[in-house]
Amino acid sequence: MAIFKKKQTNGFLIRVSLTVKVAVVTIVIGITLSAVLDYFHRRALKETFNAQLLNMLETQAKEDRRQFDTLFFGYHRSVKALANQFSLIKYIEKASWNDDAQTKLYKQEIPPWLPKVSVLKYYPEIEYALLFDSHKKIREVYSEFSDPFPASLNSLSDFIIETAIENSFITHLDSIDYVIASAIVKNENGDKIATLVIVHRLNNDFLQDAMGPNKGIVALYSDSENAVIATNMPDLISIAKTLKDLKAEYMLTGKSFLDYGESENKYAFLSLISKSTFERLSFNILSRSVKYNVTTAFTLILSFIVIMLYIMRKVRRLDDYIADVSKNQLGIDCPTLIKSKNRFIRSDQIIALEHRFHSLFDKIVEAKKLLEKRAADLEHINNELKEATAQLVQTAKLSALGELTAGVAHELNQPLNGIKIICQSIMKDIQKGRHDTEELGADLSDIVEQVDKMAAIIDHMRIFTRRSDTMVVEPVSINALIEGSFKLLNQQLRSNNIVLKTNFTPELPQIKGDHIRLEQVIINLTSNARNALKAGTKAEKLLEIKTYLSNNFNLPSGTDSVVIEVQDNGHGISQAIRDKIFQPFFTTNEPGKGTGLGLSVSRKIIEEHGGLLLVDSEEGAGTTFKIVLPIQP
User: How far apart are CA 87 and CA 319, in angstroms?
Assistant: First the structure.
């Protein structure tokens, strides 16, 4: 019964390809939205740009002021470094300054108490340097210029000199602004012997040195003079320009005052940007943004159309593939065309694919129900397989135990014979009336000991033959497990003159596994070795069992593993049957002897433990089976 009912479809749009529809709608919506949103986008972009640019300029203004301060305070650090020069101290100590001697002037000549030009170039530029004696009288002067030395610097007050010792200092002398820094010169004993003062005019050169090349526009403005006193761009900003003139041509992006000076004059540090530059940047960015938007919109529309063409091509291929599978493999005829007005028309690819799926849906529902039924059948079969596997493991255990019956009987017969002899001895003593209480107690103790031996063997057989459909995972000591297995194997080996040699690595780490199933593997491999040795013709029949740690096996759970080797010197396994020995029911024994399940079940048990069961055999020399078990945390 159909779930989807196909209806007749009318209209022109259904005949148009989906790619054409999407392309037309995308172009119309794109143009409309672009026209409506462009106005709002331009406004928002301009506001955002203005805010971000101002924020960047404020950050740049702080950086400009930091660079200015670096140079400004660098004068104080420089004068302290110069005052500690060994050559300066020695020069002053050797100088013979008379009270009436005139001040010695060095014009454009480096005095001997300053470093050489090659060293001096690493200091901030020094326009003037003054050397005072210990009585604060000026003795020697250096001038970078050939012009007359400013008279105002010859009469620096003690206040200015003392203040400039603490830090770089600004003062206004004879209408000129100076940056002054001073330092006391001391001898080796710490006595004051002179004072060194360095001076630079607060002018355009100072700002150009502070800002370096390719920086923004900065200026120093004096409130008292209401004019610019210095700038790093004298070609753009003239000295004596007022704040009103600056605001007409520039945006003041940062304004901070220089609060280190002794006069009432207030100096403002300004970072500037030309308004025409600001507007030009804004216009360029907005214009580029519009171009990018138009280009992006066109690219997106074109890309979308290309993608739709690619998708529709894939849809058409999918539709053709479904039609082919439906008709040739499922036997369902599902037309690609849609019926309209009693005739079939080619339609929109998605609509055609939709109708195709509607035609197949009923069959899919039926197939789902069939799959559910088959899944239930498979689950039932799987449960039966698990039961058969458990029975197979149990059969292999019982088969192994059956082969050991004679040895187990002998192990039980020995303590029984001992008990019989002791009981007969006790009965004779009782009949003759000569039984001794102490001897009777010793005899009974021997009987109890023999009974305990039989009980241990019987209990071990009972546990070994117990059926377990699922693995019981617990910590297992490999050495103890092997030693326990030989409670059932010792007599079999002795009766066949087989020499058992063990080489156990002491204190092996425990593994996690099923004790009984692992013991079954040991018994299976030992029994196979016993049969091989029993059928052999060698004078010395040797069975060796080793345990050791190894990291040479790439197990999924890790590299560390415990290895058990069961090695015999029997006749070995021929190359012809080596690949078959792990197959169920494969055996080389005579009919009626062995089930052929031992090795196949053993490999399954080891693989359930996440390990490996490997064989290495040389025909005529012997066989070695390796059990590799992972050490799990």
Answer: 96
Residue type, 22: V
Angle at 99 between CA 98 and CA 105, to 5 degrees: 70
Cα→Cα distances 385→136, 374, 389, Å: 113, 16, 6
Q: What is each CA distance from 448 to 145, 270, 454, in whole angstroms?
A: 125, 111, 10
Neighbours of 72 (CB within 10 A): 24
Could you report the per-residue pLDDT of 147-183, keeping only the tens digit for each?
Answer: 999 989 988 888 888 888 888 888 888 888 899 999 9
* Dihedral sign of CA atoms 38, 44, 48, 51 in order: positive
Point out the least confidently predicted range of 99-113, 131-145, 368-382, 543-557: 368-382
Burial of 341 (0-12, 13-18, 19+ CB in 10 A): exposed
pLDDT per position as a tens digit, 99-133: 777 889 999 999 999 999 888 888 999 999 999 99
* Distance between CA atoms of residues 367 and 370, nearest Å: 5
Which is it for strands 498-504 and 541-550: parallel, antiparallel or unpaired? parallel
Mean pLDDT, the chain, rounded, equals 78
DSSP string, 331-376: -----SSEEETTEEE---HHHHHHHHHHHHHHHHHHHHHHHHHHHH
Nearest-CA neighbor of 207 among 321, 34, 70?
70
For 445, the enclosing helix (H) or strand (E) is: helix 437-465
**Cα radius of gyration (the chain):** 53
> Which tokens sit at 564?
């058990």
Res. 309: pLDDT tops 90: no
**Strand, helix or coil at 218?**
strand
Task: Transcribe 234-248 into DSSP letters.
Answer: TTTS-TT--HHHHHH
State the Cα–Cα distance between residues 59 and 65, nearest whole angstrom. 10
Spatial separation of the C-alpha atoms in residues 599 and 628, rounded to whole Å: 15
